């Protein structure tokens, strides 16, 4: 989805970016792109509070005239899958809105996030 919306690879452009993109976010987001990842983490956190497993709940999506439409996978948890899709969709659009401030220096191939501090920003 991220590639369709931004033209960039989710993994190669965003994994390990800043303090929240990728696994184990904490600290203060370094810029607007990192805030997109923080918001995505919060979105997934809310789904988990409602019994969903957003990483495991699959979904389908299509793009019509540049707009993402979320759908269900047959045999899956439709509500949880659609909600996970909505989280991912918001994140992709957020990345697109902030392409002009994306800073390659904030992406680490092997992110330690040691510069981010210990505390997680509240949702």
Automatic annotation (TrEMBL):
It holds the Pfam family Phospholip_A2_1. The active site is at 40, 88. It catalyses: a 1,2-diacyl-sn-glycero-3-phosphocholine + H2O = a 1-acyl-sn-glycero-3-phosphocholine + a fatty acid + H(+). The keyword Metal-binding applies. SUPFAM superfamilies: Phospholipase A2, PLA2 (SSF48619). Its main location: secreted. Its EC number is 3.1.1.4. It is an enzyme of class 3 (hydrolase). Residues 1-116 form the Phospholipase A2-like central domain. It comes from the Eukaryota. Ca(2+) binds at residues 20, 22, 24, 41. It is found in: Secreted. GO terms for biological process: arachidonate secretion; fatty acid biosynthetic process; lipid catabolic process; phospholipid metabolic process; positive regulation of fibroblast proliferation. InterPro entries: PLA2, PLA2-like_dom, PLA2_Asp_AS, PLA2_histidine, PLipase_A2_dom_sf. Its cofactor is Ca(2+). One of its GO terms (molecular function) is calcium-dependent phospholipase A2 activity. Binds 1 Ca(2+) ion per subunit. One of its GO terms (cellular component) is extracellular region. Disulfide bonds join 19-116, 21-37, 36-94, 43-87, 52-80, 70-85. Belongs to the phospholipase A2 family. This is Phospholipase A2. It comes from Microtus ochrogaster.
């Amino acid at each position: 989805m991220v590639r369709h919306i931004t033209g960039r690879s989710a993994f190669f452009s965003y994994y390990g970016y800043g303090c929240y993109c990728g696994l184990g976010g904490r600290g203060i987001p370094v810029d607007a792109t990192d805030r997109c990842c923080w918001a995505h983490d919060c979105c997934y956190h809310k789904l988990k509070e409602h019994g969903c497993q957003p990483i495991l709940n699959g979904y389908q999506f299509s793009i019509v005239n540049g707009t993402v439409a979320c759908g269900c996978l047959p045999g899956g948890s439709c509500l949880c899958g659609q909600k996970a899709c909505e989280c991912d969709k918001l994140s992709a659009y957020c990345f697109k809105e902030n392409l002009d401030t994306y800073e390659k220096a904030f992406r680490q191939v092997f992110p330690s996030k040691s510069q981010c501090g210990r505390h997680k920003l509240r949702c």
